[in-house]
Amino acid sequence: MDTYEEALSWIHGRLRTGIKPGLSRMEWMMERLGHPERRLKAVHIGGTNGKGSTTAMLRSILSEAGYEVGTFTSPYIEQFNERISINGRPISDEEVTGLAQKIRGLADEMEEMAFGGPSEFEIITAMSLYYFACVRPVDIVLFEVGLGGRLDSTNIIHPVLSIITTIGKDHIQFLGDTLAEIAFEKAGIIKNGVPVMTAVEQPEALDIIERVAKEKKASLYLRGREFSGTWLSSTEHGEQFEFQSPFSTRGPIETSLAGLHQVNNAALAIMAADYLRTFYAFFIEDEHVEKGLGNIHWPGRFETLYECPLIIADGAHNEEGISALVKTINQRFPDRNITILFAAMKDKPLDGMIQQLKGVAHQLYLAPFDFPRAAQSEEYEPYTDEKSDIVQDYQKQIKRFQKNGKGTDVFIITGSLYFISTVKKEIKTPGFFSENV
């Protein structure tokens, strides 16, 4: 393995192993690597929705304060290297190659062992831990959970703080059918004596988190009880709100990410920053919080891809995410003509997602696309009607809207971060919008 392309091919080739819950493989790799996970100051961020935005907001605040902040996130939107970044800058191709070479020898050894070789996600997690501990040490690392929490490979870390954003029904084939079962898996990131912050609201989910926190003697900071983010108004590109906690009162303050749900994410990020300042002597002033939240850009989260006519990409990929998107559409574009291009994974609750979008869309296009788990025409067939249609060539619909859409029209692309990633790459291709349709 000598090139970046060969490294990516090997890493992505591990997809064939599927999802492999459990920490035995990670524990073995960490021991062989000299336990890099023990050398890191980290924040662990889990939950059903909002993990990425909360991570991005906290990273932006800490970066504004002058800290070197590592992040481990998934999935990537434009480039694989995004998954391991410092202050929002992805690591280099050469660094990816070197890390893959480091881990491959271990992976080959593991193939002969009882627990088998590591999954793709375990490999990337190990790469990030080794990188931030041994190759490019940073002041703090923000680790986003991949799936669930209790058995997720990122749960090998012992953080200074844990965050559980929200609980919703997603990945039920792995995490359980009820909110209580899913909350139990998410609460698995709570460690003994390590504080946890959450914006979870549903009583059956919150009961589990409170019980686990009590068992682990972990202080629990709950939005709406210990801290709050109160929405004030929408701005041109984001939301304005007030924040209150035992550590600070702020406001009005603005985040450049749009959507009422982003106020909850911002409140979690501020609360985490305040905690690090109060208990870990991080030097974070008001201007760092304000600039950090005001200047943030997070790809695929109500992101404008084209200004006029307006084309927006949003990575909502489950019922709760679509619900938040619909609220944002109604809030920002109450009298506009809305066209939605939707593509999702076939294991998602398509009915609940599509029915919500039908309530806000004047025209809904259901799009099969080239991805192993993507829903295809047969999955979409039951949802076609006079304003919902299956489109095989979704690129043509995007180009047609860009050419013929009026200034008040809005085109929204949603359903899957994998789809958003694909579309963004295509739109950035030179000449994409100049081709005839």
TrEMBL record:
GO BP annotations, alphabetical order: folic acid biosynthetic process
Highest taxon of the lineage: Bacteria
The enzyme's E.C. designation: 6.3.2.12, 6.3.2.17
Pathway in which the depicted protein is active: Cofactor biosynthesis; tetrahydrofolylpolyglutamate biosynthesis; Cofactor biosynthesis; tetrahydrofolate biosynthesis; 7,8-dihydrofolate from 2-amino-4-hydroxy-6-hydroxymethyl-7,8-dihydropteridine diphosphate and 4-aminobenzoate: step 2/2
Residue intervals of the Mur ligase C-terminal domain: 300-416
The family this protein is said to belong to: Belongs to the folylpolyglutamate synthase family.
UniProt name for this protein: Dihydrofolate synthase/folylpolyglutamate synthase
Organism from which the protein derives: Domibacillus mangrovi
